[in-house]
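CATEGORY: protein folding

GOAL: derive structure tokens
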Amino acid sequence: MREFIDLPGASGATYRFRLWPQGASHSPMAGNYVLVKADAEGEGYSVLQAGVSDDLSAVRGTLEKAAKRGATHIFTRLNVSRVVRTSEHEDISAALSSKAG
């Protein structure tokens, strides 16, 4: 799996997320995250869930629960400002919803 992924928002903005490797710790910073399912080759992926957290170090359990739906990796984006974090989450979620519908 690649180290970074760029996700488009419905607005046309692009957001860069970094892979949170299995077994690695994460600083307790606020930010956004996405759970993805890697394709068979390990280079492509599909986003299963987008989320936002005041403490990204606490979201590893989210991946474990989503593994039942096929989630294989978690990517994070540090984002201290609550307003920006929420805005980006809404933009990404809107883009994901438009793909699903």
Notes: The first helix runs from residue 60 to 66. The first strand starts at residue 4 and ends at 8.
